[in-house]
Amino acid sequence: MHDTVVVRRTINAGPGRVWAVLADGWLYPSWVVGASRMRDVDQSWPAPGSQLHHSVGLWPLLLDDRTEVIGSIPGEELRLRAHGWPAGAAEVLIRLTPVEDGTEVTMEEDAVQGPAKLVPGPLRQAGVIPRNREALRRLAFLAEGRAA
User: Fold this and answer.
1) CATH fold of 5-147, please?
2) What InterPro entries does the entry give (predicted)?
3) CA-based, 20 to 30 A from 28: which of 36, 37, 52, 98?
4) Roughly how many angstroms between the first and final C-alpha of the chain, as a whole number?
């Protein structure tokens, strides 16, 4: 990932609680900005090769898309390929690192396919950084709420 955007956040919940949110595919639209509803979750989620089938956009202008797992280390790392027609696809790496107050979550993302890859890196980053900061904020709400 050449122009990878990296966003970090410390979540006040242990890695197990954060992983529990990531491992529940039905929660995907609760923390991923732009995902609006789930249509189906493979039973093997988040095993490599499994997929989430979701829609993006605002009703009634929704597009059906999917996200697939391309790598997974339970409790530590989740590597996704998010398909976003017509923009293309992006790879997203989410790492969980235990810290004294909970978990540092690192999210890296970059376009890997389609028209979005033609957009210069700094312009892609300008849109991805705030979106991923919000995604980690939402992930924190879910994980910390489960830990309470």
Assistant:
1) Alpha-D-Glucose-1,6-Bisphosphate; Chain A, domain 4 (3.30.530)
2) Polyketide_cyclase/dehydratase, START-like_dom_sf
3) 98
4) 36
